[in-house]
Design brief:
By secondary structure, this protein is an alpha/beta fold. It is built from 16 helices and 17 strands.
Length: about 450
């Protein structure tokens, strides 16, 4: 049973030292209870208490990290709810591509190249595939290890999934990964003991692969009893219906009934469900929406990967936490002292649309971003977070007056009603009403000239 914040507080040293970056032990305890902080962030808690609180406050879907460090690691699991509106989804589904020792060098090189190349930035977020699954297609340790080393060298930020039915081959390839901790795939009824030993010796997370959901539960239970905590689940489903149903049953059992054998992320293989790339993408989209921890594709193509990345971004964006950019003065296209000055809010989508239009205009400009707590222009104005007095305060502390000779400020067209009030707050500044839509900015800026 999960502990409350008060129960956790009683186990803390109550130093209120702030070394965990949270001012008080009470606030820290509440965050631990809510799953927003790890008990290990407190430097004064004993290992015994850490284990006790960690187990009691652990999310229904266990958190697992793949990779070399906390900064570079890919996190899966950590989920606490069935539906995003109940709270939020914590860690995005990992998207990976399959390479195998029985593929041609050209196919392997192409997949690695596309893994590195297909990257997109949207609202300040870098979207890309996360992992490469390496399959021991020849059941040969030497070629399996060689391919692993090739992937490690060719894709420096790829998280590694090692796939082999032979424990010795898996161990050799895992050792080649060094501190880039891989996910081992997979323990079955035929090799569970050997795979368990490899995972324990190398301190790597292990995938459980059953022939169906019931078999996966039994095998997971066996490995939990053997002391394994970091597991992933493959229920053996290789049709969209079966995989969908298994993912839903597993998440529901873990979240609502705290059923530990299913309290782990699932890994799905759309690449093994169809030979049609578009159908594979459709299957992957369903799995991303319904609880998959990792999905593995047969290849990466821009027209297939980008929609999946965008779907993932939308699903795993916290609806209660607006995406924001930092309050600051941004120079676009190399502005000077005669360049236009524009201002808008710090809602990420607003910033990237406006800055994109300014950049596309080729007009050197200063873009002031005011902190509105992630609210859009009209919403921020209505909430009193983008009023004339606050804009004036920001303008004065921003240093923009030292960057330009003119005194003209372009505000969004939707805020035309505050022109007079803003001119009162900013004596000497002329307030220019800009276009209502960002798409009209390029033409507007090309016609703008500072007053003589």
């Amino acid at each position: 049973m999960a502990l409350t914040g008060i129960q956790i507080l009683k186990m803390l040293p109550k130093k209120n030292c702030g070394e965990c970056s949270i001012p008080t032990c009470l606030a820290f305890a509440m965050k631990v209870a809510a799953g927003q902080a790890e008990i290990g962030e407190c430097p004064y808690v004993s290992d015994e208490i850490k284990e006790q609180i960690g187990e009691a406050s652990a999310p229904p879907i266990r958190t697992i990290k793949l990779g070399s460090s906390d900064e570079a690691a890919m996190t899966i699991g950590g989920e606490t709810c069935l539906y995003r509106h109940e709270k939020r989804f914590e860690n995005p589904t990992g998207i990976g591509v399959l390479v195998a020792t029985d593929m041609s060098d050209a196919d392997i090189d192409g997949r690695i190249e596309r893994f590195n190349k297909l990257r997109y930035e949207r609202v300040g977020v870098l979207m890309k595939a996360d992992c490469i699954a390496i399959k021991d297609g020849k059941n040969d340790s030497a070629s399996f290890t060689a391919l692993t080393e090739k992937v490690l060298k060719g894709a420096a930020d790829a998280k590694i999934i090692l796939m082999s039915d032979t424990a010795a081959n898996l161990a050799d390839a895992a050792r080649a990964c060094g501190d880039r901790k891989p996910l081992l795939y997979a323990a079955t009824n035929a090799n569970a003991d050997e795979m368990s030993k490899v995972a324990r010796d190398l301190d790597c997370p292990l995938t459980v692969r059953g022939v169906n959901l019931d078999d996966t539960v039994a095998l997971s239970d066996k490995l939990i009893a053997a002391g394994h905590k970091d597991l992933a689940l493959d229920t053996g489903a290789r049709t969209i219906r079966a995989a969908f149903e298994d993912n839903v049953v597993a998440r529901k059992a873990a979240v609502t009934r705290k059923f530990k054998p299913l309290g782990f992320s699932t890994i799905n293989f759309p690449c093994e469900m169809t030979d049609d790339p578009l159908l594979e993408a459709m299957i992957a989209s369903v799995m991303i929406a319904k609880y998959a921890g990792i999905v593995i594709l047969s290849d990466l193509q821009g027209d297939i990967l980008f929609p999946l990345l965008l779907e993932r971004l939308n699903i795993f964006t916290d609806p209660q936490r607006p995406m924001v950019v930092q309050e600051d003065v941004y120079n676009i296209n190399g502005p000077g002292e005669d360049s236009p000055v524009l201002i808008t809010c710090n809602f990420s989508l607003t910033y990237f649309i406006v800055s994109g239009e300014i950049e596309g205009s080729k007009v050197p400009s200063w873009l002031l971003i005011k902190d509105t707590e992630g609210l859009s222009v009209l919403t921020a104005w209505a909430a009193g977070k983008f009023g004339a007095d606050l804009i004036a305060q920001f303008m004065k502390k921003s240093g923009i007056e030292d960057k330009v000779k003119h005194r003209e400020l372009i505000i969004p067209g939707y805020l035309a009603s505050m022109k007079g009030e803003l001119e009162e707050e900013l004596p000497g500044w002329n307030i220019i009403i800009g276009p209502r839509e960002a798409g009209h900015l390029p033409a507007f800026l090309k016609e703008w000239k500072p007053a003589a």
